[in-house]
Design brief:
With 271 residues, the chain is an alpha/beta fold. It has helices at residues 8-21, 27-39, 43-48, 56-70, 75-79, 103-109, 127-135, 148-161, 198-201, 217-222, 240-248; strands at residues 81-84, 87-90, 117-121, 140-145, 166-169, 182-185, 230-234, 253-258, 264-270. It has 11 helices and 9 strands. It has a 7-stranded mixed β-sheet, with helices on both faces. A two-stranded antiparallel ribbon has the order 1-2.
């Protein structure tokens, strides 16, 4: 792929061929997003003027982006950012890429009492913690992660966004001092040994993905919830029932929130 001296239309057509051959599920969308980023415009500008020529710097950037995408590197890592609710997060391979489904965890926690002390366990990029700090600035939000690299990403996101979250390094709830009112999390829940798409298997951190032989290892450890009266845990659909049972054994009354596809996505517990 060489895009110097070419037009938007030609660059997209060439990238589309390469991305399709690499097995990308959404080759045209990805090519358009990457080209728009390389040019510093939005996708609408590409559609409005497909015969516009590429500046050499944009052409070189797009060539690099497209080459990385053919190696199945996720678009979010290539561009270094990901939108999540009302905020935009910097992301890299130290953290899981935030998914739209995880926004339901935030929504479930928006009706917490004023000033509640809430901890986002395994915060990664800080997505849940920072979205809560953004939408409920009265909350006292903490984010924990065992990974120093992940916490560095989360801390940098918080500083850039001007949102206050207390970042704590350690295993799950171990570093959290004193009682908390709420625990929220998107735990690792993929069964160990599961075959994943190359974008996930090659690039995203395994410790944020795999939850043991049945996917429930972290949920078992989180279920006591540090004495909290509210929890909201993201789940894969088939785990909603066993996670609800774990929480019920700890005295929680549970409800399940479905995502936009109608799949069980968040188990909410109150006690």
């Amino acid at each position: 792929m060489a895009f110097t001296g070419t037009t938007i239309r030609d660059a997209l057509d060439s990238a589309l061929i390469a991305l399709t051959a690499a097995g990308i599920d959404t080759p045209r969308l990805d090519a358009e997003v990457l080209l728009a980023a390389a040019m510093g415009v939005d996708r609408a500008a590409l559609i409005a003027d497909p015969d516009r020529g590429l500046e050499p710097e944009a052409a070189r950037a797009f060539q690099d982006y497209a080459r990385r995408r053919t190696r199945r590197e996720p678009v979010a890592y290539i561009l270094g950012r990901r939108a999540f609710r009302r905020i935009e997060l910097d992301v890299d391979s130290r953290v899981l890429i935030p998914r739209p489904e995880t926004e339901h965890v935030v929504e479930a926690a928006l009706d917490l009492p004023y000033g509640a002390r809430v901890v986002d366990v395994g915060t990664g990029s800080g997505a849940i913690a920072l979205a809560l700090a953004d939408e409920r600035p009265d909350l006292r939000v903490m984010g924990t992660d065992i990974s120093a690299g992940a916490l560095a990403v989360a801390r940098a996101n918080g500083a850039r966004l001007g949102l206050h979250v207390e970042w704590l390094q350690g295993d799950l709830l171990d570093p959290v001092p004193g009682p908390v009112d709420a625990v929220v999390a998107n735990p690792p829940y993929i069964e160990t040994g599961t075959n994943l798409a190359p974008e996930i298997a090659r690039y995203e951190p395994a410790e944020a993905l795999f939850g043991g032989a049945d996917g429930l290892d972290v949920y078992r450890r989180l279920a006591p919830a540090h004495g909290a009266s509210f929890v909201a845990f993201e789940v894969a659909g088939w785990l909603a029932e066993p996670v609800a049972a774990l929480l019920a054994a700890e005295g929680f009354a549970t409800t399940v929130v479905k995502d936009l596809a109608g799949i069980d996505r968040v188990v909410v517990g109150r006690r």
